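Usage example:
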Amino acid sequence: MLKYQHIADELENYIEEHKLQQGDKLPILQDLMIQFDVSKSTVTKALDLLEKKGVVFQVRGSGIFVRRHKRQGYISLTSNQGFKKNLEEFHITSEIITLDIRKPTKEAAVNLNIGLDDDVYYVKRIRYIHGQTLCIEESYFNKSIVTYLNKEIITESIFNYITEGLGLNIGFADTYLHVDKLNAEEAEYLGLQKGDPKLEVESVFHLTNGQPFDFSKLTYNYVQSQFFLQAVL
Amino acid sequence: MLKYQHIADELENYIEEHKLQQGDKLPILQDLMIQFDVSKSTVTKALDLLEKKGVVFQVRGSGIFVRRHKRQGYISLTSNQGFKKNLEEFHITSEIITLDIRKPTKEAAVNLNIGLDDDVYYVKRIRYIHGQTLCIEESYFNKSIVTYLNKEIITESIFNYITEGLGLNIGFADTYLHVDKLNAEEAEYLGLQKGDPKLEVESVFHLTNGQPFDFSKLTYNYVQSQFFLQAVL
DNA sequence: CAGTGGTCTAGACCACGAT
DNA sequence: TCGTGGTCTAGACCACTGT
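Running the assembly step on the lines above writes:
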């Protein structure tokens, strides 16, 4: 385990367990260096991680403080690993509609940077939050990278399988958002009326080497759609 | 100017000017160290900045590569300084509806962490993109921090004035997104029908010392609403 | 002015990728 | 095995905050 990762985890746990609030002060750099027996740069790197993640903010000449947004029940748009943490936090479950190998749509092929004749795993699921319909999810996985999938795997966390099972390293994602009106089929799945609002979230996930491996399109039930985003400016 | 900031700017300009594409390789660390006459850590810090910003991705054992998302015409949800760059890129203009000093709504008071009897500057604007209505914007500024505003200032960039004119340092923002249906008044402003979809974006902006100074609520025309987000996982 | 975080260095050593 | 990026150190010096 990397030292700075370890320190970041420890501090985050500490904040969580002691229910520290926005503005609460953490120990100064000097103390953290001694406590974890590392150099200043390593502590700094750990704190930069936490700052990027929206957990703390640092004020030169003053100290390190806890950052905590006020609202509960919002799904993070930037949380790592495709909703992994959110899954646990919000009790999100899913029902599989389709799983097969097929040729990509033109849109999927463009986003995955493959040809129209290459194979993809196509997954369609309905996701539920606290028993309510949250969203429709359609995913296209480049089969030459994600070589195998089955119903059991996609019932659990696909991303977990990709990293643990296949040993692939997920690097970054481009995400696009649109708001539009539901068509009849989507309304049916989500238990809403045709023409009701929807939030469409398209993501292209890449490996650390830059190869796109997953193009996903999520259509959210607007009633359940509350998202948040913590930015450092 | 900080060295790592300078290097980051130079590299970003280079990528822009030479129209480098996704996957194009940049010089190796060693060369960048020599070129800019700085230590390895400084180059690394510059590259980490660019990576966070979604401009490059680094692959251990291989090199540093340009990252570039495929779609044009999307507004960045994470671009710095309240849309400053987007303003230029998309020719966003605004029309002022209201500017006055008043008491905050309960909601604004909670988000700004002030009392119901404290003063705020209230600003209501309509924003246009390429001449089309983009969104309705309502902002509440804590008057004890943002001590003065006038029509001229809010016609230009408010955030620019806050940093340059008032010498304040903007630190971070919490942003919340909802999708809902337009009410009659909003529909009127946006030139849409009541019941049409809307995207509501609420942001709380904080100074570097953690004090919230601006609570803004933006209601977007769903037709014009295309956002993107570059995440590092 | 003392306290505290931020920048920068030079260099050792490690881990991953390509060949 | 070599090229390349990642982690970590010890320490000098700088810049902002608060008393």
